[in-house]
């Protein structure tokens, strides 16, 4: 049986709108700094500052999480579902605890402070020093359900 390339789950974590407003305000403030040098300098500073801040917001605030029939794909990382245990949905205080004082430095974590829910999945591979995967998600119940479902299918195909 061939692996499907169509993801069963696909989520893009994007920066909140407030970050984009801050990027625009950064460009405006840079324009005000250059205004004494003339209107052209201010417009160049406005354009350059807004573009650079927007690029930073886009790169820092964006991450894609996908689950295919055999892999959990997070950014550039590809984690076989066969190496993962039971997913645990985290909300509120429990999610914050796993981001802070319960966190293991060896864990693979995709944290977004503006997303208060997450999924934590144990890594079962004895060769891998990573104890668990922590993923911020706006739909953690759906993500956990798809990981369970796809892990079961991957296990059935191996048997």
Q: Could you explain how this protein is built, in words?
A:
This protein is an alpha+beta fold and 159 residues long. Helices cover 43% and strands 26% of the residues. It has four helices and eight strands. The protein has a four-stranded antiparallel beta sheet with strand order 1-2-3-4. The chain has a four-stranded mixed beta sheet with strand order 5-7-8-6. A hairpin with a 2-residue loop joins strand 3 (71-74) and strand 4. Helix 1 (17-34) packs antiparallel against helix 2. The longest helix is centred in the first third of the chain and has 23 residues, at 39-61. It is elongated and about 65 Å long. It starts with 8 loop residues before the first strand and ends with a helix. The mean pLDDT is 89.
Secondary structure: elements and pairs:
Elements: E1 9-13, H1 17-34, H2 39-61, E2 63-67, E3 71-74, E4 77-80, E5 84-91, H3 92-99, E6 108-110, E7 117-123, E8 132-136, H4 140-158
Parallel strand pairs: 6-8
Antiparallel strand pairs: 1-2, 2-3, 3-4, 5-7, 7-8
Q: Which descriptors apply to this entry?
A:
159 residues; single chain; alpha+beta; 8 strands; 4-stranded antiparallel β-sheet; 4-stranded mixed β-sheet; elongated
| Topology order in helix (H) and strand (E) letters | EHHEEEEHEEEH
Low-confidence stretches: none
Largest sheet: 4 strands, antiparallel
| Global structural class | alpha+beta
Mean pLDDT: 89
Described by the principal axes of the CA atoms, the overall outline is elongated
| Helical proportion, percent range | 40-55%
Distance between the termini: 13 Å
């Amino acid at each position: 049986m061939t692996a499907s390339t169509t993801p069963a789950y696909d989520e893009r974590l994007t920066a909140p709108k407030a970050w984009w407003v801050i990027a625009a305000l950064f460009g405006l403030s840079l324009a005000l700094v250059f205004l004494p040098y003339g209107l052209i300098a201010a417009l160049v500073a406005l354009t350059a500052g807004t573009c650079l801040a927007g690029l930073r917001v886009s790169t820092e605030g964006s991450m894609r999480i996908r689950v295919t029939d055999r892999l959990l794909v997070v950014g550039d990382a590809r984690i076989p579902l066969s190496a993962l245990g039971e997913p645990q949905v985290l909300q509120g205080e429990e999610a914050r605890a796993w981001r802070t004082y319960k966190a293991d430095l060896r864990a693979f974590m995709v944290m977004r402070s503006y997303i208060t829910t997450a999924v934590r999945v144990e890594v079962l591979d004895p060769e891998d020093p990573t104890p668990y995967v922590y993923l911020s998600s706006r739909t953690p119940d759906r993500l956990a359900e798809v990981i369970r479902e796809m892990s079961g299918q991957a296990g059935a195909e191996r048997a």
